[in-house]
Amino acid sequence: MRKIKKGDQVVVIAGKDKGKKGTILSIEGDDKLLVEGINIAKKHQKANPTRGIDGGIIEKVMPIHYSNVAIFNPTTNKADRIGFKFLADGRKVRYFKSTNEVVES
Fold first, then answer.
1. pLDDT band at 104, cuts 50/70/90?
2. Could you report the per-residue pLDDT of 16-75, keeping only the tens digit for each?
3. Cβ-Cβ contacts under 8 Å for 88 (sequence gap 6 or more)
């Protein structure tokens, strides 16, 4: 079980986009994340009429290392750390370390 999953709201804690919030779009490999609206790069794209792709300069979301983001806690409106615990029914769940609340996922 991972501490950060697809669909989680995260806050960037290091880098050029520090302080911005976004949703995780996908996880690439063991340590890279694609976060909506974070780490955007401009890419020069060549046109390909057979595929219906227009040429020009496009903006593309690039991967960011998972250590540069922290999960967003909506009750405190701050970045938070994640822990694991077992509930009484035996399920393993993620919880916020500061408020001890279970993360909805």
1. confident
2. 999 999 999 999 998 999 999 999 999 999 999 999 999 999 999 999 999 999 999 999
3. none
Is residue 78 within 8 A of residue 99, CB to CB? The reply is no
- In the chain, domain spans: 9-76
Cβ atoms of residues 4 and 12 within 8 Å: no
Determine the average pLDDT of the residues in 87-101: 94
Provide long-range contacts, Cβ within 8 A and 24+ apart, for 97-105: 98/73, 99/73, 99/75, 101/75, 103/8, 103/71, 105/5, 105/7, 105/8
Rounded to two decimals, the pTM is 0.83
Neighbouring C-beta atoms of residue 12, cutoff 10 Å = 20
> What 8-state DSSP symbol labels residue 22?
E
Exposed/middle/buried for residue 10 (C-beta within 10 Å: 0-12, 13-18, 19+) = buried
